[in-house]
Amino acid sequence: MFMKKYYLLLSLIIISFFKVCIGYAEQKFEETQNLVEDAALEWNDSFPSSFYDGAFLGDGLQGAMVMRDKDNSDSLRMLLGHYKAIAHYSIPQWEYCNSRVYAGSIVITPKGDTKQERMKLDLWNGEINGSVNTVKGKFEWTLMSDRKNKVFIVSLLASGEEKPF
Q1: Can you give the residue range of the structural domain that contains 15?
Q2: 62 and 133 part of one domain
Q3: What is the mean pLDDT of each run of 10 residues along the chain (165 residues)?
Q4: Which pTM was predicted?
Q5: What pLDDT does 124 receive?
Q6: Number of separate domains in the chain
Q7: Are residue 74 and residue 27 in the same domain, yes or no?
Q8: Which residues, other chains included, contact 21 with Cβ-Cβ below 8 Å and sequence gap of 6+?
Q9: Does residue 1 sit in the same domain as residue 73?
Q10: Rounded distance, CA 57 to CA 34, Å?
Q11: Is residue 165 part of a domain?
């Protein structure tokens, strides 16, 4: 009889301890999420034109940089790379590419002149998203790196004369 009461008391103590721990962990998780969400980088009314000022995204295996296209100031360029793609020479006019060979790039060029643009590096969700308002419509985009499948995912939603994109 004594042992049953002892195990019952011990079980209640352990359950109470775990409830306190779970509550504490949930509180810390929310605090961490708020801290990281507050640290998100945002660009309003202008995309960066320099590689060094662009939005970066990566998972340790693959990475991307998002910036204004240097060949067309209305376009947005997403440079995509992988850590296994390297070279032992420099690429002319790309001083930051001494050993990088980009796997490719995605260039988004609107049909109309740009009125307003915005971009956000969402650190909590691990994605870059943005929107461009033009005189002919609007398009919104999101770029994320999927490490499990080793791919980049770009979604694009356009309206007005920007559609079909």
Answers
A1: 1-39
A2: yes
A3: 62 65 68 82 85 84 88 87 73 61 85 90 90 92 88 91 80
A4: 0.71
A5: 84
A6: 2
A7: no
A8: none
A9: no
A10: 20
A11: no
- Are 3 and 79 within one domain? no
Whether residues 84 and 46 fall in one domain: yes
Q: Which amino acid is at 130?
A: G
* DSSP collapsed to 3 states, 63-99: EEEEEECCCCCCCEEEEEEECCCECCCCCCCCCCCCC
Residue 40, pLDDT score: 86
The answer to whether 103 and 81 are in contact (CB under 8 A) is yes
Sheet with 104-108, edge to edge strand ranges: 55-58, 62-68, 76-82, 104-108
- In a domain, residue 84? The reply is yes
Cis peptide before 164 (omega within 30 of 0): yes
Cβ neighbours, 10 Å, residue 139: 21
Q: Are residues 2 and 53 in the same domain?
A: no
Half-sphere exposure of residue 27, counting CA atoms within 13 Å on the CB side?
A: 6
Q: What is the pLDDT of residue 126?
A: 86
Strands 151-160, 137-146: pairing is antiparallel
**Of residues 138, 145, 147, 146, the one with CA closest to residue 156:** 138
What CATH number did the domain enclosing 48 receive? Answer: 2.70.98.50
